Amino acid sequence: MFRFGVFGLAAVAVVGALVAVQVFGSGGGAVVEPPIGEGRVLGDADAPVTIVEYADFQCPVCKRAATDLIPQIEEEYVSAGQVKIEFRHYPFLGQESWDAAQAAAAAEEQGKFWEYYAALFNAQGRENSGAFSYETLLQLAEDIGLDVDRFDATLSSNANLEVIQADADAAREKGVNSTPTFFVNGAKIVGAQDVGKFRDAIDKALADAQEAAQ
């Protein structure tokens, strides 16, 4: 049975996370549709604007972003080749956050990160309540057509723990203390805020990139 014992960074950021949840609300019962991307990236690798998202699969505001905000940005900017979105792990809400992050990384190894991303958000429950039990993580893998034996072997060996830890360390170095936190070509936006705020940041980044290219 896998168990990480790396939950120390939760205490660093839990206050900020609670504030974000209070301000921006919950994803509720909305359904997350799996985006189409390569690895943990949505969009053209050469897009002039990069949005980096730090998220926790137990975070209800992250689910809200996945159901509403990300699809709007995909439709308006990603599909036009102007923006790419990169997902990064910041699992600080408890043991099941780390478990889910490692499970997503195991799915990524089989080319189905975004399908598993959607499955995790759609299975989201109360924090550390068993919604992301080992058995559930295996069932989600089966549901999206993964090689479950390979997935199980990867997950039980903690093979991707260093990858998840590296994302979390990078988040802390950038001053991330709640989820979701976004960086639009480096400009920080905290929470699943109105898409208008993201449009402003993206349009500015596009203008800056165009000016730099001249």
What is this entry, summarized?
The protein is an alpha+beta fold and 214 residues long. The protein has helices at residues 10-24, 60-78, 95-109, 113-123, 134-143, 148-156, 161-173, 195-213, and strands spanning 41-42, 49-55, 83-89, 181-184, 187-190.
Neighbour order of strands in the largest sheet:
1-3-2-4-5
Total domains: 1
Question: Averaged pLDDT, please?
Answer: 89
Architecture per CATH nomenclature, i.e. the level-2 architecture = 3-Layer(aba) Sandwich
Give me the strand/helix succession: HEEHEHHHHHEEH
CATH class: Alpha Beta
Can you tell me about this structure?
With 214 residues, the chain is an alpha+beta fold. It has a single domain, classed as Glutaredoxin (3-Layer(aba) Sandwich), CATH 3.40.30.10. 52% of the residues lie in helices and 11% in strands. It has eight helices and five strands. It has helices at residues 10-24, 60-78, 95-109, 113-123, 134-143, 148-156, 161-173, 195-213; strands at 41-42, 49-55, 83-89, 181-184, 187-190. The protein has a five-stranded mixed β-sheet with strand order 1-3-2-4-5. The chain is globular and about 50 Å long. The model is unreliable at 1-27 (pLDDT under 50).
